[in-house]
Amino acid sequence: MLNAMDVAAFRGERLVFEAVSFSVPAGGALLLSGPNGSGKSTLLRILAGLKAPDAGTVSWNGAGAFDDRIAHARRVTYVGHQDAIKLGLTLAENLRFGVGDQCIGAALEAMNLAPLSDLPARMLSAGQRRRLALARLALSRAPLWLLDEPTVGLDAGSVDRLGSLFSRHTDRGGVIVAATHLPLPLAGPAELRLR
Fold first, then answer.
1. What residues make up the domain containing 117?
2. Alpha helix (H) ranges present in 27-100?
C-alpha cells in the first residue's frame, strides 16, 4: 500500500539519509528507529507530503503519493512532536472540527479523557495533552497514520489504550508508520533503522 524507493533527504547542505526503501502493506506497521538526528522526523514529514524528497519516490497503491496532494492529505493523519492543541479551548472543542459530539465523546473515552471534556486544555498535564492529541486518531478515517514519538509523556495505561487504537486501525487495513525510541504496542511491525 505504501512504498518508498531510494528516498533521500538533505537538511540544509547535510545529507540526512539516502537510498531509503521500504513497503508497508495494508494492515501493516513500520517502526522508524535510530539515534537523534538520523532523519526519522524528516522521513515522516516526507511521507506526509510536508517536505519533498530530495531523491526517490513515494507511492500509495501503486500511484505517486503526491500526484494529487489533496487526495494524499485526506489519506494521512499526522501526529508530530507538537501536540497541536489550542490551550484556550476545552478538550471537546479541540476535537470538534468536522465531527459530531458522539464521536468526540468516544475519542475522549478511548484515551481516558472523557471526564475532562469541558476543561480548558491549558489545565492539562503534559501527558494529558499528548493523550488529547492522540485522541484525534480515534476520529481519523485516514488509512495512513504517521506518528512521531507517540508515547512521549504517556503512562503505561495510556500506552495500552494507544495500542487498542493501533489494533483497530490495522485490523481495518490501515497503515501505521511511527518514529520511536521505545517499543510500541503493535503486533509484528517491520523496523527500519536510520543511521
1. 2-193
2. 40-48, 69-74, 91-95
